[in-house]
Amino acid sequence: xxxxxxxxxxxxxxxxxxxxxxxxxxxxxxxxxxxxxxxxxxxxxxxxxxxxxxxxxxxxxxxxxxxxxxxxxxxxxxxxxxxxxxxxxxxxxxxxxxxxxxxxxxxxxxxxxxxxxxxxxxxxxxxxxxxxxxxxxxxxxxx
Length: 143
Fold this sequence. Notes:
Blueprint: H1 3-30, H2 32-42, H3 53-56, E1 71-83, E2 87-99, E3 105-120, E4 123-131, E5 136-139
Antiparallel strand pairs: 1-2, 2-3, 3-4, 3-5
């Protein structure tokens, strides 16, 4: 193989790798609105009447809790996203933490799930959600 053809093979390889990276980045960016909606649901920023069934499970801490929850924070990491801009899957891990009025962590919940997603009218919807059995719950009593 000549030196010129080795350079051509390297360029083609780098071009293909760059194209794959760009497409995957666009897939991740396209699901940002879905992740933001899940964070808002988990942090009780969305009324439960406005939440579709598969996402209602992300509201871990409701107002009926025995603790005086002041605020909830969420951390969501997309591990894998694969879709064709109409239908697809998202694998994510998430952790939600509840705090009391003094800023003390009183409870946390973390898990992983895979969601089947579908895009309607430019907005992603979750068709169903499968949770894995890697749950970690910690409840700290305030006394």
